[in-house]
Each structure stands twice: as C-alpha cells, then as structure tokens.
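Entry type: protein chain
Record version: 2
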Amino acid sequence: MKIKIVKQILFFLLIVFYLFAGYNHFANPSFYIPIIPPYLADWAKEINILSGIAEIVLALLLIPKVTRSLAVKGIILMLIAFIPSHIYFIQKGDFMLGSFTITPLLSCVRLFVGQPILILWAWWASKF
C-alpha cells in the first residue's frame, strides 16, 4: 500500500516538474536563452518557446494512460536533445545562471547524473 502511494506521488511530481519547467520557459526566458549553445543562437527564442511548449504538452500527455507511452518517449528524446546544451555548459567553464555559479563540475554532475535520473524517472512513468 505504501509503495503504491509513493509511486503515485512520484508520478504526480513528474507531471508537475515538466509543467513547471515548461511554464518557466515563458515566465523566465532570460534563464534559458543564455544557456543555448552559440551555434543555435540565431534560433534561441524559438528553441526556448518550443522547449516550453514541448514540456507542457508532454506533461499533459503523461496523464491519460493511453498517451503515457508516447509522452515518455517524447520526454526521453527531449532530454537527449538537451545534451548538447549540457556539453556546452562544461565547455563554457564557470558562468552565472541567475544567482548561481555553474562550474564545469556541476555541469558534469548535471549531465552524467541528473540527465540519466530524469530519463529513468520518465521511463519508470511508462510502467505506472
């Protein structure tokens, strides 16, 4: 019984996580646009908008069981598509992201620990 409740909470948090992340692309674009790699800078605003829309749509598609598998695949593909940005963070060296200093070590942790956790969390949701 307790495991089922934990699973429901984690599933709910996954939906909220992507809804908030998507919303934040619109509420705070100045957070995302500077971290888009320079070779994509000409389309930074469009990439930010598309990322926000994708995160919101995929979060909503997680809710119905019939679209959950599609949503999970979309989230995993989106997370893979974000890998060049994480590599750019590492190459960029120390930089400020809002009031936080992002170091190459923190960027490596985000890429090699954070991204796999997010991918596994989404994959797990497909089993829920």
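Comment: The chain has a mean pLDDT of 92.
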